[in-house]
Design brief:
It is a single chain. The radius of gyration is 23 Å and the shape is globular. The protein has 23 helices and 6 strands. It is mainly alpha-helical. Among the domains are: about 60 residues, no CATH class; about 55 residues, no CATH class. A 4-stranded antiparallel sheet has the order 3-6-5-4. Helix 16 crosses helix 17. It binds calcium ion.
């Protein structure tokens, strides 16, 4: 998922993919600004099913598996197949026994720069767009040349985690780096989808029909899980549907290969070392077999795209057979996904949020996730539901999200929306999950229109917008083309300074005004 397709996997998207602790490298989290869901979506034209493509996006969070498959195809169409021979030369001597000094022939996995095991596209052989010193082509080649030593060097850590030497040896034998992942990790798509296009793609009749089938087929499992955890079945079914289109798009990269590659090469090695060792622990314990652990380039696997560390934290043995099989066993899958949400703070009996009508002249400075207050207070400010229905629990605290500014619908977000954001830290993703769950429950589409006449700014335009805001003293950060809270605040202050509604929405009109035209 390059130019247009960016495989935002959970790991890629945020500091806390799937409940993982916050790590040092948070830059990626900004990839998913609130109106900027998953890149990658743009490749829809290349993909027979636009929806499926999203996966690469959505998986976006975990989103690597489902997400990835579409993204990879798109990327394949976009990327020149270059540097393959070059890379092969550099890698051809990499495969040998990790423990043996005699360098025996590779047990499997004939070396291919793109990972012959996955049949994916080759590495571009180019410097990464992040500009990180570990992402230059030279640094990648050097690290790839040391891949075997790097993997072998993780044995002491693996031993401390209780992995047997026999298992370590057998699971790492013939492991080869998949350098194509370096392209995917640093891809910076020029164009991204608007939130309304994103929602259109994710929430559709086909997926809803599949979701209803799944809810009926596994009713007993959902019943038991709801009783045990208090987590709404529709949210679980929604995550299953959005992440992998009900197990039909989970990604086909080897989790071991992907996480080993990322643990030894590139700019997030410490983070992925934990993922790789956790994947080994899962295999060592026998919860899953290696062939079941396939997924996104970032290592997320299964129908709800667990990262290995998230699996360790949240997976449970729902049917009591001794294995936590979140890939092929629906009972374990449903119970584990629910356990994840519960441990992240899911409030039983509460919904995720409400669509609201925001009154004319409203001060959007209050649309900030740090500014939560009781719904009754929001009602005093004039916010109401578009259907005229009352809010069931006016004392609940909520914050206002206005993804398209004053021209689009507002949403009052409750605690459970924050929980969904922990699953995948992208506002558009979490909104899609909540809304899809409501639709599965029989709810109606959003009432208010989106400003579909607005176009999404390109990456170049977003950079320019930040630079112009910085020149005028509104933006203090480093322009990077990624919109987060800091950009929104700067934009609102600029809007207020010129007397237009300060809603923080990056329209092309605002860009024109910044340009002084
Ligand atoms: Ca089980």
């Amino acid at each position: 998922m390059l130019a247009c397709l960016q495989p935002l996997t959970k790991a890629d998207v945020g500091p806390r993919p799937h409940g993982v602790e916050k790590k040092a490298d948070t830059k990626i989290s900004s990839l998913l600004g609130y109106w900027q869901p998953q890149p990658g979506l743009l490749m829809a034209d290349f993909w027979p099913d636009r929806w499926d493509m999203m996966q690469s996006v959505a998986g976006l969070a975990k989103r690597a598996g489902s997400v990835t498959s579409g993204a990879l195809v798109a990327a394949a169409l976009l990327l020149p197949a270059c540097a393959q021979a070059q890379a092969q030369n550099g890698l051809s001597n990499l495969f040998g026994g990790i423990f043996s000094g005699s360098n025996p022939a590779p047990a499997q996995a004939p070396p291919g720069p793109g990972g012959a095991q996955t049949g994916a596209q080759p590495w571009s052989g180019e410097d990464g767009a992040s500009g990180h010193p570990l992402m230059t082509a030279a640094a990648i080649r050097e690290a790839a040349g040391n891949f075997n030593n790097c993997v072998a060097g993780m044995w002491p850590d693996a031993a401390r985690r209780g992995i047997t030497q026999e298992n370590f040896q057998s699971f790492t034998a013939g492991l080869a780096p998949d350098l194509r992942i370096m392209d995917l990790m640093d891809s910076q798509p020029e164009f991204t989808k608007s939130i309304w296009d994103y929602l259109d793609i994710l929430v559709n009749d086909n997926r809803l029909a599949k979701g209803r089938e799944v809810l009926a087929k596994y009713k007993a499992q959902f019943d038991a899980t709801e009783r045990a955890t208090g987590v709404d079945r529709y949210i679980i079914a929604s995550i299953w549907g959005i992440e992998s289109n009900y197990s039909t798009q989970m990604g086909d990269r080897s989790v071991l290969q992907s996480t080993a590659t990322l643990a030894c090469i590139g700019r997030r090695q410490a983070y992925f070392k934990d993922e790789f060792l956790s994947a080994l622990e899962i295999l060592n314990r026998g919860d899953l077999r290696p062939e079941q652990m396939r997924g996104s380039w970032a290592g997320a696997f299964g129908p709800t795209q667990f990262m290995p560390t998230a699996f360790k934290r949240f997976a449970v043995d729902g049917d009591g057979d001794g294995r936590r099989d979140v890939v092929d066993n629906p009972t374990d899958l449903i119970a584990s996904t629910a356990n994840n949400l519960k441990k992240d703070g899911w409030q039983a009996g509460q919904t995720w949020g409400f669509e609201v009508v925001v009154p004319q002249g409203f001060n959007y400075m209050q649309a900030d996730r740090a500014k939560a207050m009781p719904i009754a207070q929001w009602e005093k400010l004039g916010l109401k539901r578009p259907t005229g229905q009352p809010f069931p629990h006016p004392a609940e605290k909520a914050y206002l999200l206005a993804p398209a500014g004053a021209q689009g619908p507002g949403f009052l977000m409750l605690q459970n929306y924050r929980v969904i954001m922990k699953y995948n830290p992208a506002e558009a993703y979490a909104l899609a999950i909540g809304h899809f769950a409501d639709r599965l429950r029989g709810g109606a589409p959003f009432v208010q229109p989106w400003p579909r006449q607005e176009r999404e700014l390109s990456r170049t335009e977003r950079l320019e917008l930040q630079q112009l805001l910085a020149q005028r003293g509104f933006y203090k950060g480093t322009p990077d083309g990624q919109f987060g809270g800091q950009t929104r605040e700067a934009l609102r202050n600029f809007q207020a300074s010129i007397g237009v509604p300060a809603d923080g929405f990056a329209s092309s009109d605002v860009l024109e005004r910044l340009r002084g035209r």
